[in-house]
Amino acid sequence: MNSFSLKKNKIKNTGVEVTELSFGTSSLGSMPDTYGYEVPEERALETLNRFFKGPVNMLDTSRNYAMGESEKRIGLAIKKLGGWPKNFVLSTKIDRDMKTLVLDKKRTRESIEESLKIMSVDKVDLLFLHDPEYVKDIDDIKKKDGAFDELFKLKE
What does the domain layout of the chain look like in residue ranges? Predict the structure, then answer.
């Protein structure tokens, strides 16, 4: 049980309430070149288990954190919990294809489907467009029927 609580803020017109702190999960995938240390799977799962017992209610991830390993480990933790816990907020991102750098309509749909599958959830609460400055062609994002349009379709 939490020994303290954190203030929650409502995200306008969504019904979603998030604590003032969130838990970013890039390091859980083990990115020693970025952070200078390895994170074994067991350690990542222990960390996630502790997170779900704490006062912070928002977990933020991405398909591109450690080439999908972060979301894979989150999925393992969610399975052990028997599903995504009530009153927690799951945030992930639409990511470019890391080999081709493409982020178009098709990749937008693929990215969220990959995230949902690997994390064993049927939806996320918050979905962002991730690192658009690194895509092959920014027009793939902003053109009619591009990544932005698909992102809004996903919202519905």
Answer: 8-155
Superfamily of domain 8-155 in CATH is NADP-dependent oxidoreductase domain (3.20.20.100)
Instruction: Give the pLDDT of residue 3.
Output: 66
pLDDT tens digits, one per residue of 50-108: 999 999 999 999 999 999 999 999 999 999 999 999 999 999 999 999 999 999 999 99
Instruction: Give how far Cα 63 sits from Cα of 45, 60, 66, 68, 117, Å.
Output: 17, 11, 8, 5, 11
**SS3 of residue 13 by DSSP:** coil
List residues with catalytic annotation: 65
